[in-house]
Specification:
The chain is α/β, with parallel strands linked by helices. The protein has helices spanning 36-48, 122-126, 129-143, 145-166, 172-212, 233-239, 241-247, 268-271, 274-296, 313-323; strands at 2-11, 14-20, 25-29, 67-76, 79-88, 94-97, 100-101, 114-117, 219-224, 258-263, 266-267, 301-304, 331-335, 348-353, 356-360. Strands 2-1-4-5-6-7 form a six-stranded antiparallel sheet, covered by helices on one side. The two termini are 25 Å apart.
């Protein structure tokens, strides 16, 4: 899949921009706060209909303006396609594929696969378990609509159960009505997560070895769930009813699962330098890319935000060498300077300055 052209109106600090991209590597260079990451966020929005920063849609519209519009022209499965996302203007958010608007955004997830590596990925390395669960859920949801449906059903039922606990409702019939769909969805979620992590593990190890170089670190990823040994969600909920009634929330289930990341046999968050942690998370994203390409049959877009920060020259050159291979498609890189010189033939670059983008020779 290729993003051939992007038109932006009133998105963050980008008032107007029209860019035509290289089918291989596209570099956005400039000082911090000049709009490089905002442009990547616009591309991300067209795949997920939400910002990767997690801010409300209203915060994405340029100050003083009433609406924002993004339009991307793609080549997907050798067929030209257009996506248009509209925010504000007195209407709800609208995402159109061609001339047809989606009724539910979830119908769009995975159709235009995308992988983003950003500074926020350091939360994968050292943040709370929710960041690693979100990583698993986002990857699988792009490749498996049934998983996404199960996840949405589970989260909806979980929200209902937690509300009942907060309101100190004790009627067992009401809990049974909520917990039955939770348990059905939970079984699907845990099985799919376990299979995904097992498949991803080998891919990840290969990419990490490519980045770390000879004599590199030993790395592992492992999925842990209270349901992994055959325990059902019904059993977990029964065992924790008194605890949940005291805490006023559901203390066990797939929403508490963990993805363990290790470096040389130790937890990554305790032992890794900043450079090691970044190499680790980039390898995870490249493994995600490979997984999605195989699972969807569509080559994802690869967005590498602030790629070269915290990495030594050797790791930078090895990453550029890896993503320049033929099995990688279109790539977008941002940084304050081009740390890899020279870049592969066919690379296009722009200088970002206060929301404007000037092509560089």
């Amino acid at each position: 899949m290729l993003l051939n052209a992007l038109n932006i109106t009133n998105f963050k600090n980008i008032r107007e921009a029209s860019l035509t991209f290289s089918p291989k590597i596209n570099c956005l260079v400039g000082n911090n706060g000049m709009g490089k990451s905002n442009l990547l966020d616009a591309v991300y929005m067209l795949s997920f209909a939400k910002s990767y920063t997690g801010v409300p849609d209203s915060s994405l519209i340029t100050d003083g303006e009433q609406f924002s519009m993004l339009r991307g022209e793609y080549l997907r499965r050798d067929t030209p396609e257009a996506l248009t996302l509209s925010l504000g203007g007195g209407r709800r958010k609208t995402l159109r594929r061609g001339d047809k608007a989606y009724q539910r955004v979830s119908q769009h997830i995975g159709a235009f696969p995308l992988v983003l590596s950003s500074p926020a990925d350091m939360d994968l390395a050292g943040g709370a378990p929710e960041y690693r669960r979100r990583f698993i859920d986002q990857v699988i949801s792009q490749s498996d609509p049934l998983y996404l449906d199960a996840l949405l059903r589970y989260n909806h039922a979980l929200e209902q159960r937690n509300s009942m606990l907060r309101n100190e409702i004790s009627d067992p019939v009401l809990y049974q009505a909520v917990e039955l769909p939770m348990a059905m969805a939970a079984e699907t979620i845990v099985k799919r997560r376990a299979a995904f992590v097992e498949e991803l593990s080998g891919i990840f190890s290969r990419y990490h070895a490519d980045i770390a170089g000879k004599g590199g670190e030993e790395v592992t990823i492992a999925y842990h769930s209270a349901m992994a040994d055959g325990t059902t969600l019904d059993q977990l909920l029964d065992n924790n009813r008194r605890r949940d009634s005291i805490l006023h929330h559901t203390s066990a289930g797939p929403h508490r699962d963990e993805l363990d990341l290790t470096l040389n046999g130790l937890p990554l968050r305790r032992t890794a330098s900043q450079g090691q942690a970044k190499s680790y998370t980039i390898a995870l994203r490249l493994a995600q890319y490979d997984f999605l390409r195989q699972a969807t049959g569509v080559t994802p877009l690869l967005l590498l935000d602030d790629l070269f920060d915290k990495l030594d020259a050797g790791r930078v050159s090895r990453i550029v060498e890896v993503v320049s291979r033929s099995d990688f498609g279109q790539i977008f890189i941002t940084d304050t300077k081009l740390a890899a010189d020279p870049l592969p033939a066919g690379t296009a670059s722009w200088r970002a300055d206060n929301g404007t983008f000037t092509p560089q020779p």
